[in-house]
Every structure is written in C-alpha cells, then in structure tokens.
What we know:
Two copies of one chain form a homodimer. Chain A is mainly α. Chain A contains nine helices and no strands. Chain A has helices at residues 4-19, 26-33, 37-43, 47-70, 76-87, 95-107, 112-138, 148-167, 173-188. In chain A, α1 (4-19) packs across α4, α2 crosses α3 and α5 (76-87) runs antiparallel to α7. The longest helix of chain A is centred in the middle third of the chain and has 27 residues, at 112-138. The two termini of chain A are 30 Å apart. At the A-B interface, α6, α7, α8 and α9 of A face α6, α7, α8 and α9 of B. The first copy, chain A, binds a DNA duplex (30 and 30 nucleotides) through residues 4, 25-27, 35-42, 45-47.
Amino acid sequence: MADRKTEILEATCRVIAREGADGLRMGTVAREAGVSSALLHYYFDTRADLLMQAFEHADVKADEAADQAIADIPTAIGRLQRLLLIYAGADAVFRDDWLLWVEMWRSSIFDERLAESVRRSSAAWVEQIQGLIEQAREEGAVSAEVNIEDATQRLAAVVDGLGLQVLTGTATHDRAADLIVGAIGNELGIPLNARSTA
Amino acid sequence: MADRKTEILEATCRVIAREGADGLRMGTVAREAGVSSALLHYYFDTRADLLMQAFEHADVKADEAADQAIADIPTAIGRLQRLLLIYAGADAVFRDDWLLWVEMWRSSIFDERLAESVRRSSAAWVEQIQGLIEQAREEGAVSAEVNIEDATQRLAAVVDGLGLQVLTGTATHDRAADLIVGAIGNELGIPLNARSTA
DNA sequence: CTTCTGACTGACTAGTCAGTCAGCTAGGTA
DNA sequence: TACCTAGCTGACTGACTAGTCAGTCAGAAG
C-alpha cells in the first residue's frame, strides 16, 4: 500500500470498474490516486501499459482471494462449488474482480497483446476447475461415466455466461447461484444430495 | 440498400465488428459508407444514437437470419440445436452478428439506455429457446423430470460462455459445437441418440 | 556544507474527435 | 422563369486527451 506503483494500479482498477477499460482516462486515474498524471507516465510508459499491468494485478489479486476463500472447505466438491459461485460474480464482494475480468476478456478481442495474457489466465482457471473435479472423483463424488474435460469446459462456460447475465442485470445473484449448483450436479452426475452453499 | 440511412447503419455494424463499439469513430463510419461525416449527423443526432440504432438494426437482422436458418428443420430438438450453434458463434458466418451482440452486451454495463434494449433482446432469445424446448417435450424428446426454466437458462448461459471463448480464441468452433450438443443432451435428459448437426 | 538522485509536478503540445454551419445541387412546384 | 426543399458536403471549432519536459524538492552520499 505504501508502494506508489501499486496504489496507482489499484486506482486504475477502481476506475476500470466504474468506467470500463475504454473509458479509462489518465487524468481520472491520476485524480483517483491523488497524484499528477505525469507520475503515471513516470511508472508506466503508455496508457496501454498501465491498462495491461492493472489487468494482471487484478488477476493475481482475485486468484489469491479466491484461493483463500476456498482454502478450508473440506470436500473438493464444496471447494468447486464455492469457486464457481465466486467467479460467477454471484458473490457481490467479487463483482468488481469479475467486471475487471470481463473487461480484460473483451478488450482482448481487439488487442492481440492482451489476448495472450487472457489465454494464460483462462487456461489456469480451467485447470483449477478440472483439478477440483478430479479430486472430487477420487473422493467418490463424481459419477464414473462423466467425461471430465467436457464437464470442466461446460461448467466454465455456464459460469461465464451466468456471470455476464448478473453483470448486465439479466439475472440475479441468487438465481445464478442456484443454476450453478444445479449445473454442477448435472455435469458431475450427482444424484441431488451433496449441498452446502457456504 | 438504396436507402442511405440503412447503408450507414450497415457500415456502422462493419466498423463495430472491426474496431469494437468504443473504437467506433464517426470519421471511420463515414469513410466506410462513402459519405461525409456531416451526413451521419444529418441522419443521427449523436454518436450514441448511431451506435444504438446500429445495435438494434443488427439485432433484428440476426434474428431474421437465424429464424430463416432453422425454418425448415423438422424436429424442435433439431431447430434448438441449430439455433444454439448459430448463437454461439460456432457458425463462422454469424461471427460478426455474435460479436456485435457481445459489444452491445458489454456496452450496456455502463449505459443504462442500452441496458434496457439488451434486456429486451435477451428475454426474447431466452423465450425462443424455452419455446423450442417445450415443443421438443411435446414431441417426446425431453425427459419428464427436466425443469424447463432451469434448463433454458443454463443452456443460454453455456452458449454465451462458449461463444465468448470462441470469440477470444480460447476454444475452437468445432469444440464449442460438440460441447453445446452435449449440453443439450445433458440438460434435456436425452440418452445419447438424437443427433444431426446440419 | 555540496552534490547527486529518485520521486514528483504544473504547464504545455500535438493531435483527435464529435458536432456545427454555411452553402451547394438536383428535382419538384407554382 | 423563379422559388423551395431534401439530401448532402467541406471546412471549421471547441473540447478533450496522451504524452512531454523543464524544473522542484527531500533526502542520501560524500
């Protein structure tokens, strides 16, 4: 926090969450961080650099927060459920993280440099899901005929889709949470008994 | 096509597909349409108006194209499958339509006026899916214990999520198509026999 | 004390962009 | 003939913005 560069990155994240990535202005960030706009260029060469580093900063922070949130849940299926609920933005606390991620995602459509970064984060989070499903299978919580790779990718997609719906106000947090819990049951062939939203 | 206003709207859609909604410049649209930028302001009060009307134009056009594409498929389940594949951008021809829709969607996060429009289109497309699922049930293709509303919303979410993955290059067309076909089977309780991607 | 350096700023510049406006032109009307 | 109007444009403007730069200041080093 004492670190100016980090302060600027966090201010940048707040501005993105408020105005969107394209709506980000150096002047707005400077005001938000309480520094001069020249200082932004002292730490970051260009606006694009600032944006990219802010995305990466947010990504790392969100990962850590999510890891911590699931750390002491005993079963793999419980950790999986909690993780997916977090990433869907169904958890209000993580809304800004999720919004940042969506902004990063869509910016990457038009910016190949960002796309690289997005592909890496994406792969990491899909692997995390797949790892949890594999653990769950070892714990006997996953039906044998489930194709884990398919289930993983579909679950990731459902979570992304519902997360977007929450963000745009097309669905509520609670509805999304219910549907995700249902999707986990569906994809992993769980016969409607394991349940613990907390 | 002879209609200048429509020509401008189509040019606008092409520019959005290339540069994104925020990257849209009046000058670029003018050049794309082969008219002066002043003419844009003759037909549309502001840039925001042009953007919004372009989104609505694209939406209507895409709907019509999709309706036509599924019109002569005999079974409801077949129409559903084709429709979802189209909307997922799994069909390369519809990629620009899908990109436009994603741009509209994400722009609506920061623009309440657009949000209204997005909610309406969203509702319409969810209803279309639900209608097809209900028809499929009448045709005996849907397991009895399926909750149609849940299945609808989850399918919509999977399609949105996979569509985004295709757009950002995280997944291929073919993989997304496979996963969607699988998701339909999963959600509707189809025991792995009905299949016809065409 | 002096000198040096890293952090930082205010004022500026060059460029971009949405939107305006006076006026041109072709075709219709009186 | 003269007049009107819809469609259209080139030239312009004012607001805004990323990035630059000369210079300030506190504190460390010698």
